Amino acid sequence: MSSFPKISVILSVYNGQNYVREAIDTVLAQDYPNVELVVVNDGSTDHTAQIIEAYADRLLLITQVNKGLGAGRNAGVQASNGDYLSFIDHDDCWEPCKLTRQMELIASSSEDPLVFTNVRQFICPTLTEEESLRLRVPDESMPGFIAGTLLLSRSRFNEVGGFFEINQVGEFVDWYLRAQEKKLPIQMMDDVLLHRRIHKTNMGRQAEAYDRQAYLRILKASLVRRRASSGGF
User: Fold this and answer.
1) Helices 212-230 & 171-181, crossing angle to 10 degrees?
2) What is the per-residue pLDDT for 233?
3) Which of 72, 147, 155, 186 would disulfide-bridge 87, Cβ 3.0–4.6 Å?
4) d(CA 165, CA 75)
5) CA of 51: how far to CAs of 46, 87, 202, in Å?
6) What are phi and psi of 23, to 5 degrees?
């Protein structure tokens, strides 16, 4: 392994004009010295494109019609060439040492693990006091088994395969369950290296309102795969 293998960071965004600039800046501010940022504009209809274009010389831009988060991430992975992969949502922020700390752990392991970190949520200051009071956001950090904290080698990603592109929600839940089914090594760091913004249009909050059944379908599909692999019925 070279001293600083290239890490490709994939940012797929749809109508993220309010927050995407901060997400891009948080990647470009990483203290790890070999980072490639791939931004996929997934058919945005707001001013997202103009914001991204201001960084044209510092990232690789992919533009496509709106296909959803899973398809956007897959397109970013395919266009990237890093030895390692990481993902960030357009409305989240990283600590500047995120990639360095994770790569230190990977370098010290013989297992080539999937590395996650703790996450802390914060209420977006654009919300009104009334809107903020309706939200339940814990003060303490928590393990972040989500795409935004993950760092893994490209070879491990290829073992699992790409993100499911049909569901508009739950694409990472499906991916993570497939990784577990393959019994890949997984490590959770205690460090809080991602800050998750809570606002009115979080994809997860929207999904909870209109498609809880999607998660049940994903869990059922995982159960069927596990039974089939073990010869069960």
Assistant:
1) 20
2) 47
3) 147
4) 11
5) 10, 19, 20
6) -65, -45
